[in-house]
Design brief:
With 348 residues, the chain is α/β, with parallel strands linked by helices. 24% of the residues lie in helices and 30% in strands.
């Protein structure tokens, strides 16, 4: 942990239990703690942000810390949500949480924290910082380093992750002992800062319905889809396709013809690949020498997969020891050497 003597840390308070406990722990460690709440979405009174804000107010009063509220709705639209929409139009499956961390939480939000006099910004993420390195959290089930790989070491110098050595049960236990209003609050899900909603219903406001055909490998029409942006590679649920044989899975999205190819079987050859190429590469610390043997994750919950990374022009070629399932365009691939998160990029 960075030196707390006479240091001020601004804690990003989301209204959840993790950030609430992070603020408490930092105060216990001797930091001068300030709570910060950011609103990144403009909506009516039913917006989840309003309820979260009221919880933040109560947490700050309970912990006896000052707090500020900032509105970054324009920055969020320009830097995250607008990009998210454009990627969906192209048939990709973007990850807005990673972009939000890079463009909002650890950019404009960090800048604001430093502007008001903080020495550090802290969040309730489950990850660890050691020197210039980003490491996995002690709780492998909650580790969020995958979502933080775009943070370079220069940013990490100004960041604290107080929950790095705790698991979720311990965090809730601390919150309960403190009688924090967030102690039993459910974790947020859904699109970053927009909350848990009916995705199709919500996205229809920004992307009009564009139905098309589900086709099989031979090109035969086997059903109808609601729009390419509602589906991702490897998806099984929500297709509305039944019948004999194995379950159907999305294997390809054809933007030109507005068609989605389905295959039968979770491990169909069309869903497996040993080679992935990636662009938009970010290394947390100094770029490693390539070629490099390490492991990689092609989605948050996927297991570590041993691989070889090679330079290929401006992009990377990643060859896995064994085929990976459902590598998806514009999802992130993140590289690790044991506990150290090296960085990552966007799957091409």
């Amino acid at each position: 942990m960075k030196n707390s003597r006479n240091a001020t840390v601004a804690v990003g308070l989301s209204g959840g239990v993790d950030s609430s406990v992070a603020a408490y722990l930092l105060k216990e460690q001797g930091y001068n703690v300030i709570g910060l709440f950011m609103k990144n979405w403009e909506e009516g009174d039913d917006c989840p942000a309003e309820a979260d804000y009221q919880d933040v107010v109560q947490v700050c009063e309970k912990l006896d810390i000052p707090f500020y509220s900032f509105n970054f709705a324009k920055e969020y639209w320009d830097g995250v949500f607008g990009h998210f929409i454009e990627e969906l139009k192209l048939g990709h499956t973007p990850n807005p949480d990673i972009l939000c961390n890079r463009e909002i939480k650890f950019k404009v939000f960090l800048d604001k924290a430093l502007e008001i006099g903080a020495d550090f910004l802290a969040t309730g993420h489950y990850a660890k910082i050691e020197g210039q390195n980003l490491l996995r959290a002690s709780d492998s089930n909650k580790d969020q380093s995958y979502f933080l790989y775009t943070l370079k070491s220069q940013i990490l110098e100004k960041v604290l992750f107080p929950l790095s050595d705790l698991n979720k049960a311990q965090v809730r236990e601390i919150a309960q002992k403190l009688d924090l209003i967030t102690h039993d609050k459910r974790d947020s899900t859904g699109i970053c800062f927009i909350g848990k909603r009916n995705f199709k219903e919500f996205m229809t406001t920004y992307l009009p319905p564009n139905p098309g055909n589900f086709i099989d490998e031979s090109g035969k029409v086997v059903g109808r889809h609601d729009g390419l942006h509602f589906y991702t590679i490897g998806q099984r649920k929500g297709l509305g396709i039944g019948g004999p044989g194995e379950a159907w899975f999305v294997s390809k999205k054809d933007v030109t013809n507005n068609a989605i190819t389905l295959v039968q079987g979770e491990n169909h050859p069309d869903l497996l690949t040993k080679i992935v190429r990636a662009s938009d590469i970010t290394w947390v610390a100094e770029p490693p020498s390539l070629p490099l043997r390490c492991s990689a994750k092609i989605r948050y919950r996927s297991p570590d997969a041993p691989c070889l990374i090679e330079q290929e022009g401006e992009n990377l070629k990643i060859t896995f020891d064994s085929p990976e399932r459902a590598a998806t365009s514009r999802q992130s691939i993140v590289f690790y050497q044991e506990k150290v998160c090296l960085g990552g990029g966007m799957i091409l």
